[in-house]
């Protein structure tokens, strides 16, 4: 009977520390979700209070840590270590370039581009930073969009995902040290046999932070989907959204059993097609001229003042404006960095570190910049900004998105595309998150489907629980609250990856260097499937 119980949970063959990791995390998160269903008002109040405390006292820490990680990323990528190949000199790419980019992009963003592409510019225009503005002479509309570019295009992308991807890629795949766990990346500086409790705590913090990041995105997505269905189509929002979540859950479970190549890859490709269709329609039916004029002006503000915007804290003014924006974003990125970084390392075997920089930073930053340029120009245009702002002030970001769709020509068509994009992001985010959370729990890069399904059920439950919370702001709190403990371990992980890269490069000098150009056809075209995923 006992062995059957562990088999159902996907923990047959797992060690007792791994079973304890699953049990402790699952119990705590189920209790939190149950409390949210039972007493949403009390949970909202608690989350909002914790959110204010974390960003008031630790917003500076997230901003500083992001800057340090950015310097490290550039140092590793453009030094001799940048030519190290993930998996060793003979490793071959598992995925073609399009599939690779699609998975990295859709997994790494969730639905935040649509949600915050409307929400952040509108919020900043209505509640701008204290005077004087951080960029003299810039309009508040251009400044708002420039902050959006900083937070979700560059340098946000480079700061958080790549350090964890490099650590996993170098230590787990290239150097071949330890199991597929976050704690394995510390093996070069902290001995697991001497300090097993420390390694277990690192994995616990990583899983909890990952759950916080994905739960935040699922919460945003579920409330936005409900607002679109209610505000645009006049449907019973929550009931229908639960039904859509059930359908998404069925697709997700199908993906779990199909595995990495057939499941996550195909969902990512489909989502990319819906994104392209939505953005193309928005350019055609929206305020096209204003979109590109504002976008170019904001791009100039962004590129000309990137360091200033990235490190802006305004310590002389009252309040925590910078911490509530940049601090929140960096905390969210930190929460997502564990499962996105480890997932990227998983699908990047056979690629060099510099190729990872191109596909994880440069290409997604360009795509994100273009989408935010279009979405931001749409809602900040003179004929849209007033009604969208009124909806935002009255009922939050989801209502602002629904209002923008209602006053846009062919808005119902655009709303359908938005729902498909959000659903696609939910599926790919759930797929990748449970894949990596399960992998970290079991120490196996290809975890069994049974264990992944349990984690997926937990995360989907968080997404539905978010529909019960009273405020959109309460959902924001999950990322910084749950990510804060992990940031301490993240510093150690980054240092350990540098030590591993240095030692491996020194011992394999001239062997694992890729003399060819980035993404060359000769050694990147391989798309031969491996043995069946679970």
What does this structure look like?
- The chain is mostly helical and 534 residues long.
- It has one domain: Up-down Bundle (Amino acid/polyamine transporter I).
- The protein has 20 helices and no strands.
- The longest helix is centred in the middle third of the chain and has 49 residues, at 237-285.
- The radius of gyration is 22 Å and the shape is globular.
- The two termini are 24 Å apart.
Helix and strand layout, with pairings?
Layout: H1 2-8, H2 16-38, H3 40-77, H4 97-109, H5 112-126, H6 140-152, H7 156-174, H8 196-231, H9 237-285, H10 288-304, H11 306-310, H12 321-347, H13 353-380, H14 382-395, H15 397-406, H16 411-442, H17 449-465, H18 472-476, H19 478-507, H20 521-524
Helix pairs in contact: 2-3, 2-8, 2-17, 3-7, 3-12, 3-19, 4-9, 4-12, 4-13, 4-16, 5-6, 5-13, 5-14, 5-15, 6-10, 6-13, 7-12, 7-13, 7-19, 8-9, 8-12, 8-15, 8-16, 8-17, 8-19, 9-16, 9-17, 10-13, 12-16, 12-19, 14-15, 15-16, 16-17
Subcellular location: Cell membrane
Organism: Halobacterium hubeiense
InterPro entries: BCCT_transptr
């Amino acid at each position: 009977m006992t062995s059957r119980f562990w088999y159902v949970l996907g923990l047959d063959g797992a060690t007792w520390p791994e079973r304890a990791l699953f049990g402790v995390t699952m119990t705590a998160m189920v209790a939190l979700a149950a409390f949210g269903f039972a007493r949403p008002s009390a949970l909202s109040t608690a989350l909002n209070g914790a959110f204010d405390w974390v960003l008031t006292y630790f917003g500076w820490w997230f901003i500083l840590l992001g800057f340090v990680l950015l310097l490290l990323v550039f140092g590793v990528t453009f030094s001799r270590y940048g030519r190290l190949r993930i998996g060793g000199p003979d490793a071959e790419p598992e995925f073609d370039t399009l599939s690779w980019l699609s998975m990295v992009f859709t997994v790494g963003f969730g639905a935040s581009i649509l949600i915050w592409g409307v929400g952040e510019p509108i919020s900043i225009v209505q509640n701008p930073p204290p005077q004087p503005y951080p960029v003299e002479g810039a309009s508040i509309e251009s400044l708002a969009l420039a902050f959006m570019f900083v937070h979700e295009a560059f340098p946000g992308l480079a700061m958080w995902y790549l350090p964890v991807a490099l650590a996993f890629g170098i230590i787990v795949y290239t150097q071949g040290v330890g199991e597929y766990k976050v704690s394995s990346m510390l093996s070069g500086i902290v001995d697991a046999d001497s300090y097993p409790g420390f390694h277990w705590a690192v994995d616990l913090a990583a899983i909890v932070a990952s759950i916080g990041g994905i739960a935040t995105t699922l919460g945003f997505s579920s409330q936005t989907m409900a607002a679109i269905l209610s505000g645009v189509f006049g449907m019973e929002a929550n009931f229908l959204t639960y039904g859509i979540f059930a359908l998404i859950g069925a697709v997700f479970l199908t993906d779990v059993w199909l595995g990495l190549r057939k499941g996550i890859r195909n969902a990512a490709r489909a989502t990319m097609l819906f994104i392209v269709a939505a953005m193309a329609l928005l350019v055609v039916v929206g305020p096209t001229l204003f979109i590109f004029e504002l976008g170019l002006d904001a791009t100039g503000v962004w590129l000309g003042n990137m360091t200033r915007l990235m490190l802006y804290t305004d310590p002389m003014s009252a309040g925590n404006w910078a911490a509530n924006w940049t601090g929140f974003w960096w905390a969210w990125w930190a929460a997502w960095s564990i499962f996105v970084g480890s997932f990227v390392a998983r699908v990047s075997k056979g690629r060099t570190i510099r190729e990872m920089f191109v596909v994880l930073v440069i290409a997604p930053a360009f795509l994100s910049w273009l989408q935010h340029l279009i979405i931001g120009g749409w809602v900040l245009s003179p004929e849209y900004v007033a009604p969208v702002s009124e909806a935002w002030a009255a009922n939050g970001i989801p209502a602002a998105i629904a209002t923008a769709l209602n006053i846009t020509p062919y808005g119902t068509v655009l709303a359908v595309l938005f729902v498909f994009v959000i659903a696609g992001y939910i599926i790919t985010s759930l797929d990748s998150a449970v894949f990596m959370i399960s992998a970290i729990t079991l120490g196996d890069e290809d975890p069994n489907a049974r264990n992944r399904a349990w984690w997926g059920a937990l995360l989907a439950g968080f997404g539905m629980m978010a529909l019960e919370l009273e405020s959109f702001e309460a959902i924001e709190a999950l990322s910084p609250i749950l990510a804060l403990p992990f940031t301490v371990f993240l510093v150690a992980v980054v240092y350990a990856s540098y030590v591993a890269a240095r030692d491996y490069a020194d011992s394999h000098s001239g062997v694992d260097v890729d003399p060819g150009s980035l993404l060359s056809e000769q050694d990147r075209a391989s798309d031969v499937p491996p043995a069946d995923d679970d």
